[in-house]
Amino acid sequence: MPSTKIVSVATLIWLLGVAVATGQTQGGNPHTGNEAAIKAGMALFRFRCADCHGMDAKGVRGPDLTQIWASGRTDEGLFGTVRNGVSGTEMPAVDPRTSDDEVWKILAYLRTLAAPTLTDQVAGNADNGERVFRAQCAGCHRVKGRGGRLGPDLSRVGNARTRPMLVRRIRGAVEDSLSGYEPVTITTKNGQTIQGVKKNEDLTSVQIMDTRERIQGYLRSDVRNVENPTKSAMPAFGPDRLSESDLNDVLSYLSTLKGFDPSAPK
Amino acid sequence: MRVTLSRTVRIALLLPLAGIATLVAQQGAPGLVTNQEILDGLKEDGSRWVTFGGNYANHRFSPLTQITPENVGRLKQQWTLQTNTLGNFETTTLVRDNVLYVTGPQNVAWAIDARSGRQIWRYRRELPATGLTACCGLVNRGFAALGDKLFMTTLDAHVLALDMKTGAVVWDATLEDYKTGYAATIAPIVVKDKVIVGVAGGEFGIRGFIDAYEANTGKRAWRFYTIPGPGEPGHNTWAGDSWKIGGSGVWVTGAYDPEQNLLFYGTGNPGPDYHSESREGDNLYSDSIVALDADTGKLKWYYQFTPHDVHDYDSTEVPILADLTINGRLRKTVMFANRNGFYYTLDRTDGKIIVAKPFVTTTWAKEIDAQGRPMLLPGHKPDEKGETTCPDLTGGTNFWPPSFDPRTRTFFVNAREACAIFYAYKPEYVPGQRFTGGAQQLINTRDQKPFGAIRAIDPTTGDRKWEFRMETPSRSGILTTASNLLFTGDSEGNLVVLDSRNGKLLFTYQMGANLHGTSPVTYMLDGRQQILVPAGTSLTAWALPDVPRSTAQ
């Protein structure tokens, strides 16, 4: 069982991070991180957007908005989408009575659901964190073109996950898996087992990446069994495997990962 | 120069044409679409599909038997049509004289050669660049036909007649001003000389209605408001002025009973969708089925499935008519699987409840009492803190058509098992803007994942005969055939064919996009049974490759 004490310490560190970050702006949104504006943005979101995008912004009739920054969208691009709508779809331009300032507030609120904005200014040693990461995590996680592929690519994780989310995930307090990374075990007709993560599936087939990173689809009719273990493929890194200090360094390193530009000179 | 033919010559010219018309009338070949053809529904010769549900009773059941459980695995694609638009098909294709009449997203429509999938004509409505208010997809659910005309509704709330031969607009009637929240996606039906349509806009503060237009001229014959005006019965079920913006749209096609000359239409949610205090009262005739005289639009009876709905449980599912023996008595019934989670069999002469039973997990009402009123369970009024209710807002089922097999008296529905947290807050009404007063959060966790199932229901009891489970809820309609086949789709893009007797999976094919809100249709072409499958932006015809073509006709 993960220690509640550790989680509390992590939360405290995170809160400190928030405190440090408050008042800073990032990108083109004048309200990013501004508590009052975020609160106003939440009210606006609930009135204008939640009906289609869901109260939690994870999508109902319209798409999930919690991963849009992580997917590479920018504040300016999203502002345009809200202001002008998406032509040829049911996404309307926002009510003309909604001011530009209010649109920025909506985005400032969404950003708090989507990601850590600036919460990770922690006093860890990012260089040591990278070394620990390379030794313990890079077998499964890729960063900027290096590392394994079985787990999610973390090149943008500094924009995509809050510190508490990362702590829970690393310490093993969360057992469910991201879609596309759920563990799967296939037993072939000759009794061989293939372990991996599930990329997709339907009535007749399942698509996986196996532990050797081979991507492959299997017809259900060709195999004996497809098992979906509920435990995440991500091992729990308790304090015995990753000290509090190393965890802090790793988090510090992860917070620096804001994206990967493959066209940048090496 | 005007040429005048002598009377004798004219008769001489007409005679052979009349002869051909008589010869081919049974096969639905050239000439005009007749009221009799529509009344006849789907015939054994399989030559046509000329109204939304195949017949007025909306059975979506074909008498064709060339494709069977034994040979369905040999089905082969004949051709594929792509819309080249955004959005997806939600249409029921009409078929006549080897030509397909198809409406697509964005109010594009086609006449297509059924043999080759090649376009004969294409129509595209120039839609307003901004201000369309269709809530949930720029879709269209299909044409109706009569004579040499096709009828379709438009996203900017018009109804059009198109020339079947050319796609040219013959007349164009305005339902209401789209800028104030009205839209139309419904497939019309033709009854006698009238075109019956409804409007969408339950999320935009409209006042819903069902309209009839003269098929020849486009002149409005009658209008039935789904929210009664001052002085009319039911008006007092809306507090204050809430009736003016109470929604109750009509966006899915109803049924028609020629014997009683009655139309049966399901009506949409009251608005604002979730905020109870904005519209105290039962809110008639929202979330109801209304029985209207087809000539006058006068209300014969109504039944309200969900009085004072606060979960967006539109009753815009497709009603199905059949005469059923229940407890030893032959009853004229209308069957209805409702978004609110209950399956109903009603007496279609008076709207009285015969059967009402949940067909999915339903937590807002315990049961339906003998008078037909739901017995509410406490704690299911949304507020700012949120409350959990099953089904979710998309419902136990929704606009995708069910099917009915009259031989086995089985009702087939594509059901959803899902729950949600519903929130409500007081909304402000602004014409043309969304007016829902809340939102939902779908419950989707490892321990509580929504799923779907094709369910076969005995309409005399509401009991389940079998089910076919699907990992995720799907939005596909259902087609059944006299050879015990059931065609539908799952949420992962598969065309799914089941044995309608037991739900056994017989055939799948990955279409690359979902069958959404509609079902395949089937017909005969040159001696071979065709299955026409709409999926995403594609329409694909399937047939058995080893059946020889016969083009003798």
Could you describe the 3D structure shown?
The complex is a heterodimer of chains A (266) and B (553). With 266 residues, chain A is of the alpha+beta class. Among the domains of chain A are: 90 residues, Cytochrome Bc1 Complex, Chain D, domain 2, CATH 1.10.760; 46 residues, SH3 type barrels, CATH 2.30.30. Chain A is built from 9 helices and 7 strands. Chain A has a 5-stranded antiparallel β-sheet, with no helix packed on it. In chain A, helix 6 packs across helix 9. The longest helix of chain A has 18 residues. Chain A starts with a helix and ends in an 11-residue tail after the last helix. Chain B is globular and about 65 Å long. At the A-B interface, helix 2 of A face strand 29 and strand 35 of B.
Secondary structure layout:
The complex is a heterodimer of chains A (266) and B (553).
Chain A: H1 4-21, H2 35-48, H3 50-53, H4 75-84, H5 100-114, H6 126-136, E1 142-143, E2 146-147, H7 157-160, H8 163-171, E3 182-188, E4 193-201, E5 205-210, E6 215-219, E7 223-227, H9 244-255
Antiparallel strand pairs in A: 1-2, 3-4, 3-7, 4-5, 5-6
Helix pairs in contact in A: 1-8, 2-5, 4-5, 6-9
Chain B: H1 7-25, H2 35-40, E1 61-62, E2 76-82, E3 94-96, E4 99-103, E5 108-113, E6 119-124, E7 144-146, E8 149-153, E9 158-163, E10 169-174, E11 189-191, E12 194-198, E13 209-214, E14 220-225, E15 255-257, E16 262-266, E17 288-293, E18 299-304, E19 320-326, E20 329-337, E21 342-347, E22 353-358, E23 365-368, E24 374-376, E25 387-389, E26 403-405, E27 410-417, E28 420-424, E29 438-442, E30 451-458, E31 463-470, E32 479-481, E33 485-489, E34 494-499, E35 505-510, E36 521-525, E37 528-535, E38 538-543
Parallel strand pairs in B: 1-32
Antiparallel strand pairs in B: 2-38, 3-4, 4-5, 5-6, 7-8, 8-9, 9-10, 11-12, 12-13, 13-14, 15-16, 16-17, 17-18, 19-20, 20-21, 21-22, 23-24, 25-28, 26-27, 27-30, 28-29, 30-31, 32-33, 33-34, 34-35, 36-37, 37-38
